[in-house]
Design a protein that fits this description.
The complex is a heterodimer of chains A (355) and B (81).
Chain A lengths: L14 E9 L3 E4 H4 L7 H8 L3 E4 L6 H16 L6 E7 L10 H9 L6 E4 L5 H14 L5 E9 L17 E10 L9 E4 L7 E3 L3 H18 L2 H11 L3 E3 L1 H23 L8 E4 L4 H10 L7 E2 L3 H4 L6 H12 L7 E8 L3 E8 L2
Parallel strand pairs in A: 4-5, 4-6, 11-12, 11-13
Antiparallel strand pairs in A: 1-7, 2-3, 6-7, 8-14, 9-10, 13-14
Helix pairs in contact in A: 3-4, 6-7, 8-9
Chain B lengths: L3 H16 L20 H15 L5 H4 L5 H12 L1
Helix pairs in contact in B: 1-2, 1-4
Chain lengths: 355, 81
């Protein structure tokens, strides 16, 4: 018997981002609002973080709602029908179900069913991870078009009285559609992880701790019937985000500058050939210091959406890119260096052609 | 090998570059946070620049122990030895 011949998908040479969309929720939280909860001032927060306001979503707006808003705009921009999507990838750490995924519900709402749909947990690097996968899926012939969404409802996982990270955070969604192209539109992704610093950013505790507490609380209720006390303790037990700001800052600037440089080199591009530089919007001082380390020339526009969006984790790069394109339509077709980095620790960077 | 005076002068230069503080204000007994009003992010920038200038490694967990300018000078001096 002769060996059967297997067929593999024909490869595509080039991909690019065809469309981009954004969703910014309605509630605007000012620094004065934040100062009701922490002992600080508008001036201090502006100076230390560059943040003036952040958008946050109300209880009635879910991660999938925000993702849908951004995705619909990205699909319109790409001129693609949802039915043409070959995969739906949602990068998020705030979809409140371990399973099923936000992506499968999003695909259903958009009419992309039965496209494969899955979530990516790579925190603030999630969008760049998604772009890496979308690019690979289209080039490998696995999908014709891929929707990549970065979305977060971080307001669900903050403690307003906490000073390391909560006051920086906002909610929102950004989305792109990746598809085949005539010329290279997505440079090689430089990505990785460093689990030795797993503790540098993350949740205060796990879901298992909530389970164990609930059991203890029920016993407590049986013994004393003191529901109010149980309620208080429960509020404390809800897991929220923390970071070791100093460690993260050093890593985000000096280690990430090396990664960003590698992404430029891998793409065969120099900083002066860029039209835009869009790092993850973690803190204006990280953005400024990264630009300084990379010697980004003045001619390159830098994403500074953090001023009004706060840090939106996986959503921050597509949101900042969307804003740059809205304010400077001439950027379309130019090259942008984007780099995401965050809890894991994880990082990802690539040079892309702006849609 | 730099003397403590040289390390102090070098550190004062780095602090001046990061914060605009006059180099004379950077004295051995001054606290980075309380006297010089240097926040944690500026402190990290100063640390990284000091590492480069003096050819030493200052681990993250050590940065938290550097309360005063003197602490930093002594650590750098020890690390160079």
């Amino acid at each position: 018997m002769s060996t059967p011949t297997l067929q593999q998908n024909p490869m595509r040479e080039f991909t690019r981002i065809l469309g981009i969309g954004a969703y910014r929720p309605d509630i605007i939280v000012t620094n004065d609002d934040v100062c009701q909860w922490i002992d600080s001032s508008d001036e201090w927060i502006r100076q230390r973080t560059g943040i003036v306001t952040r958008h946050r979503a109300g209880r009635d707006v879910s991660v999938v709602d925000m993702a849908e808003g951004a995705a619909r705009e990205a699909l319109r921009g790409a001129g693609i029908d949802a039915a043409q999507l070959g995969a739906v990838i949602v990068s998020t750490v705030t979809h409140p179900y371990a399973t099923p995924s936000a992506a499968s519900l999003l695909a259903e709402r958009l009419g992309a069913t039965p496209a494969p749909a899955y979530d990516v947990s790579a925190a603030c690097a999630g969008y760049c991870y998604g772009v890496a996968q979308g690019d690979a899926l289209v080039r490998a012939g696995t999908a014709d078009y891929v929707l990549v969404v970065g979305v977060e409802k971080l307001s669900d996982v903050i403690d307003n009285h906490e000073r390391t990270i909560s006051f920086l955070l906002g909610d929102g969604a950004g989305a792109v559609v990746i598809g085949p192209a005539e010329r290279a539109g997505i440079g090689p992704t430089v990505w990785g992880s460093d689990g030795s610093r797993w503790d540098a950013i993350g949740m205060t505790h796990s879901q298992l701790d909530i389970r164990d507490f609930s059991i203890a609380a029920m016993k407590n209720e049986d013994d004393d019937g003191d529901l109010a006390a149980v309620g208080d303790e429960h509020a404390k037990l809800w897991p929220t985000l923390r970071q070791d700001g100093q460690t993260v800052f050093r890593w985000a600037v000096w280690e990430m500058a090396k990664v960003a440089k590698q992404a430029l080199d891998a793409a065969g591009i120099t900083a002066d050939q860029l039209s835009a530089f869009v790092p993850h919007q973690a803190n204006m001082r990280i953005i400024d210091e990264l630009a300084k380390q990379l010697k980004i020339p003045d001619s390159v526009l830098i994403g500074r959406d953090i001023e009004n969006a706060g840090n939106t984790s996986a959503a921050s790069i597509p949101l900042a890119t969307h804003r740059l394109l809205q304010e400077n339509p001439g950027l379309s077709g130019g090259l942008s260096l984007q780099i995401g980095f965050g809890a894991g620790l994880v990082f990802g960077a690539q040079v892309i052609e702006l849609p | 090998m730099a003397s403590n005076e040289e390390i102090l002068a070098g550190l004062a230069e780095i602090v001046n570059e990061e914060t605009g503080l006059a180099p004379e204000a950077v004295e051995m007994d001054k606290s980075f946070t309380d006297d010089l009003d240097i926040d944690s992010i500026s402190m990290m920038t100063i640390v990284v620049n000091a590492e480069e200038k003096f050819g030493v490694r200052i681990p993250d967990e050590e940065v938290k122990n550097l309360k005063t300018v003197g602490d930093a000078v002594n650590f750098i001096s020890g690390a160079q030895a």
